[in-house]
Design a protein that fits this description.
81 residues; alpha+beta; two-stranded antiparallel ribbon; 1 helix; 2 strands; elongated
Length: 81
């Protein structure tokens, strides 16, 4: 009898984890995201020339309370001042 209840318990746990995983993927697919815009988007600059780039979050009509972005660049050609 103990083996049956252990199997039953294992089945319940597996079903719960599967439902939880499905809920996480469903919530992630419905998440709305803002756009991160760089201005100017491109340009030509001389060596050792300082220039400014504006980083802006465009919420696309939705409320946002935080923005996370990762920027990568060739450090041999560009440095952050």
């Amino acid at each position: 009898m103990e083996v049956l209840s252990r199997r039953h318990y294992t089945t319940i746990i597996k079903s719960f984890l599967l439902a939880l995983l499905a809920a996480v993927f469903w919530c992630a697919s419905t998440a709305l995201a803002a756009d991160v815009v760089l201005s100017p988007a491109s340009g030509s600059y001389s060596q050792n020339q300082t220039f400014t780039v504006t980083v802006q979050a465009v919420p696309n009509g939705d409320s946002i309370n935080a923005v996370e972005a990762e920027m990568t660049f060739d450090q041999s050609k560009l440095s952050v001042v």
